[in-house]
TrEMBL record:
Gene3D superfamilies: Sodium/glucose cotransporter. The keyword Heme does not apply. The chain crosses the membrane at residues 36-58, 79-95, 115-135, 156-182, 194-212, 219-239, 294-319, 339-366, 442-461, 467-484, 496-514, 534-552, 601-620, 626-651. Belongs to the sodium:solute symporter (SSF) (TC 2.A.21) family. It is a multi-pass membrane protein. PROSITE patterns: NA_SOLUT_SYMP_3. Its main location: membrane. Keywords: Membrane, Transmembrane, Transmembrane helix, Transport. The keyword Nucleotide-binding does not apply. GO terms for cellular component: plasma membrane. GO terms for molecular function: urea transmembrane transporter activity. It is found in: Membrane. This is Urea active transporter.
Length: 706
């Protein structure tokens, strides 16, 4: 028996025996039948479409309004409560990358990967809560962020930020399908191109039928399922199958191998030919990590990824219309708390999932290649190893939930931009509500078809999920600070914003390509995709843009803007003023909400990206007890978030749910009237009073302007 075999026998390392001599985990074989892929991709989409659309129609019917106005289609009535707002934030922020890329960085860097993925993409949601309340204060009638840009800064800025908004939507939807289609193909054998084409159809059906409200209701269901699978995976890894101490020992063992031993592990044991290459497998010490260990926050690669993650995700939150749309849809009193709660609950998904599945992939020495990890196949590989076909099915369902929930949010976001900022603004200024509805639904269908084509095109170019994820900040990061300034700084210049956004993009692309040339000697997909090069491009994008906009606004164009004028330049298509009444726009309440979210948002941001990492530095390489505590935090956070995000929306909406069920029961029993008629009458009276008050304000403004 060789020395290596002796060491493995001493440690009783079962995965080594099971996968000995195997070059990759999936080997072109699929744990599930292709029919399972078709059932999930098409069957789930149809079922969710019917179920979600039916709920929306029942809710509308028993509240005395079976029709859907364009305002309601694109804003959900501006009356969404805290729990559902938080659930929607979690749902639309849970991309395929959240589930797949987070475990990839755990496979690469160890414990620092899941932490930096989670913290680096949570703070943007926390801080966007500040913009959400600012929007309620100064532009409550808005439908899109670009409408606000047009109202404050004019046509040139409007066209500029439309470009960045569409770029954000395209990047996000492309990543959804890049990871999603690759996983469906790996698990079921379903053709990548067919998966890319058919996955969006589930999104198209219920989004085009029910609009933003349908998207929100579906998002709640998707989020509940995602958390159910998350909890299952945590329990399987750290309670049912292994313990934190065992995973700790296995991770130590993985980095103890020399290069020669790694070559022996990853070789054909019959012929003796090795297929090991440095960086191809998670074997041996981790370059850039303290003591070469996976069990440390002292990781240069992890930190570099964290910075890229922070910059890139500022772009995909602040420049993505779907987050502005969620803010528009929320009640003013719910917006701040919904975003804060949603951000904190979302943190648990990448952190807890990757701390379990991601670390298990390296601890168990599964033969996952860098190519498989980059394509997002770490979670399905570990789940398949631990649970067999059941694990494959659970990951497939979880991934599909993430794709369709975010995909529906992106579809409704794009349709709103096209309907309000292109069609209504430049082609038909007198568009009616029916016109807006028609255009919105057509765009949802067309964009769903385009989504698949984008994914196929990126795959043909050799770009995987990890590459696009690191690139996104370079493309849209330069729009972040100008948009923040637009909502919070009265001296923010429109011309300066245009110059800053385009200059930041040009400088970022230039720096990115020059960096690739200097570091790699040539400009290729591979040299452009290194951490150092991606980091330089991301930082140039956001920092140069911010500096340019500040200097131009402060020293060149110092005009002060009156925010009281902003909402006057934004007009409703229909006089559907739900959520815009005096009761919902109480200035004192908005002021308190702004102060509440500003303090807590910035405090939690500092905790997550500065204080927590610094407190982990003295630990160096984690001890067993420290790692056990780390795992305990991940487990508790995951369980707590699951309970909150599933229970709170139901608790807040129990009265509405009861009313709808009672109305449905009466309808089925052929009883006339509705036992909740009095309650709806009261609600209707409140809305009518708010509408009248708002109408009086609008009339006075128009009279003053005349």
């Amino acid at each position: 028996m060789t020395t290596l075999e002796s060491r493995m026998e001493d440690k009783l390392y079962p995965p080594f025996k099971e996968y000995a001599g195997q070059e990759s985990f999936f080997l072109g074989e699929h744990p599930l039948n292709v029919s399972i892929g078709w059932i999930v991709v098409l069957g789930f989409g149809v079922v969710f479409s019917i179920f979600t659309t039916a709920i929306v129609m029942i809710d509308k019917f028993f509240k005395g309004n079976a029709s859907i106005t364009s305002e309601h289609f694109n804003t959900a009535g501006r009356m969404i409560k805290t729990g559902l707002t938080a659930s929607v934030i979690v749902s639309q922020w849970t991309w395929a990358a959240t589930l797949l890329q987070s475990s990839n960085v755990a496979w690469q860097y160890g414990v620092s990967g899941p932490f930096w993925y989670a913290s680096g993409a949570t703070i943007q949601v926390l801080l966007f809560g500040v913009l959400a309340i600012s929007l309620k204060k100064v532009a409550p009638s808005a439908h899109t962020m670009c409408e606000i840009v047009r109202a404050r800064w004019g046509k040139t800025a409007h066209i500029t930020f439309l470009f960045f908004a569409f770029a954000a939507n395209i990047i996000v939807t492309s990543m959804l399908l890049l990871g999603g289609a690759a996983t469906v193909q790996a698990l079921t054998g379903m053709d990548y191109k067919l998966a890319s084409f058919f996955i969006p159809w589930g999104v198209i059906l219920y989004t085009s039928a029910g609009g933003l409200k349908a998207t929100f209701l579906a998002s709640y269901i998707h989020t509940a399922i995602i958390f159910a699978v998350l909890i299952t995976m945590i329990l399987v890894v750290y309670i049912k199958t292994y313990s934190s101490d065992q995973i700790y020992d296995f991770l130590d063992w993985t980095v103890s191998y020399t290069e020669d031993e790694c070559k022996m592990i990853y070789s054909n044991w019959t012929s003796g030919e090795s297929f090991y290459e440095k960086g191809k497998y998670a074997c041996g010490p981790v370059s850039g990590n303290a003591e070469g260990s996976y069990l440390t926050m002292l990781s240069s690669g992890g930190l570099m990824f964290g910075i890229i993650n922070i910059v890139g995700n500022f772009g995909t939150v602040f420049v993505d219309q779907s987050y502005w749309q969620s803010a528009i849809a929320a009640r003013p009193s719910s917006a701040a708390r919904g975003y804060l709660l949603g951000g904190l609950c979302w943190f648990s998904i990448p952190f807890s999932l990757a701390t379990s599945l991601g670390l298990a992939s390296t601890a168990l020495l599964l033969p996952i290649t860098a190519g498989e990890a980059g394509s997002g196949l770490v979670p399905p590989a570990v789940a398949t190893h631990l649970l067999g076909q059941a694990g494959s099915v659970l990951i497939l369902i979880m991934l599909f939930m993430a794709i369709v929930s975010t995909g529906s949010a992106e579809s409704i976001a794009v349709s709103s931009l096209v309907a309000y900022d292109i069609y209504r603004e430049y082609f038909n200024p007198e568009a009616t509500g029916r016109d807006i509805l028609k255009v919105s639904r057509i765009v949802i269908v067309l964009f769903g078809l385009i989504m698949g084509a984008l994914s196929i095109a990126l795959d043909a170019m050799g770009l995987n999920l990890g590459w696009v994820y690191l690139f996104m900040g370079i493309m849209i990061g330069s729009a972040v600070i100008p948009l923040w300034n637009m909502m919070t700084w009265d001296k923010a210049s429109g011309k300066g914003a245009v110059i800053a956004a385009w200059s930041g993009l040009a400088l970022a692309l230039t720096g990115w390509m020059v960096g690739a040339k200097i570091q790699g000697g040539e400009v290729t997909v591979a040299t452009l995709g290194t951490n150092e090069v991606m980091l330089s491009g991301n930082l140039i994008a956001i920092l140069s843009s911010g500096l340019i906009h500040y200097v131009y606004s402060k020293f060149i164009d110092g005009e002060t803007y009156d925010f009281a004028e902003l909402d006057k330049n934004i007009h409703l298509v229909e006089q559907d003023l739900s959520g815009l009444g005096v009761q919902q726009q109480d200035p004192d309440e908005l002021r308190r909400s702004y102060r509440w979210i500003t303090r807590r948002g910035w405090f939690l941001t500092i905790v997550l990206v500065i204080i927590w990492p610094l407190l982990s530095v003295p630990a160096g390489k984690f001890t067993k007890d420290y790692f056990a505590f780390w795992v305990l935090v991940a487990i508790c956070w995951g369980f707590g978030a699951a309970v909150i995000i599933v229970v709170l929306p139901l608790a807040e909406s129990q009265e509405d749910i009861g009313q709808d069920l009672s109305g449905l029961l009466n309808f089925m029993m052929c009883k006339k009237g509705n036992i909740n008629e009095a309650k709806y009458g009261e609600d209707k009276q409140v809305v009518e009073e708010d509408t009248a008050a708002k109408g009086e304000e609008v009339a006075k403004d128009e009279e003053a302007q005349a």
